[in-house]
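Issue: ligand-bound run for fe (ii) ion - logging full I/O for the record.

Environment: standard queue, default settings, no custom constraints.

Inputs:
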Amino acid sequence: MKKINRAKNKKLWVVIIIFICFYLYVSNNWIQNTRYNISSDKIDKSIRIVHLSDLHGKQFGKGNRRLIKNIMKEEPEIIVFTGDLIDAYRNTNIKESVQFLEQLSHFAPVYYIRGNHEYNTSRYQELMNYLNEVQGDLYILDGGYQNIKLKGNNFSILGLDRSKKGVMDNFLSEKGYKIILNHYSENFSENDNLSRLNVDLVLTGHAHGGQWRLPIVGGVYSPGQGFNPKYYQGINEDNGSIQVISRGLGNSIFPFRICNRPEVITIIIE
Ligand SMILES: [Fe+2]
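Outputs:
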């Protein structure tokens, strides 16, 4: 009798372990698409922007094929990447990650800012060399901004890279739809208080969706905000500006997500 029970218990444990492994695989590898619709009287024809962040060197299939396919299906006019393309400490994958941006840039213009991991890696120069060799439409916004025309609409996109704010006054006097890319979601309403600048849209990452998203509790931990973070995902509005926070795609020192699948965001401005 005891032997039968032991065999049953063993089987149950095997099932539980398989379930946990599968669940962790899904939580970390099945891409989730999130779409936000934003209306603006500065826009005549609707524009689709894909917002990516925090890849941390992760690969979704060989050559990131699965991720690229997912993004292409969204048919964006532009793609933005808000920092931490590579990881400073593990799975750095510089070449593969830059190739990923390069492939995207053949499909739509890519606007990229660096996050803390780009600056923290001891291979910073190697990363910059690869980025500077990219042959596509990849723009590294290093505290500067670009005016672009999409379907007749005027956009200005500024990349806040560390604290270079020299061009901010010029940027703020632009008349089109203004977008700021900033790695840190907590800078919107606190710290730099970007929401006070009266720009239309601020796109951020860094928070990794709180790493674990537990029912009722929400996001558990985000770098820069600690436990119980306030700005870890979603869309919020402050002073008339809208912030969209990406939960990101990969992981850093803490190696897995729970209830927090890798996210590709599409923002439709209309
Ligand atoms: Fe990150």
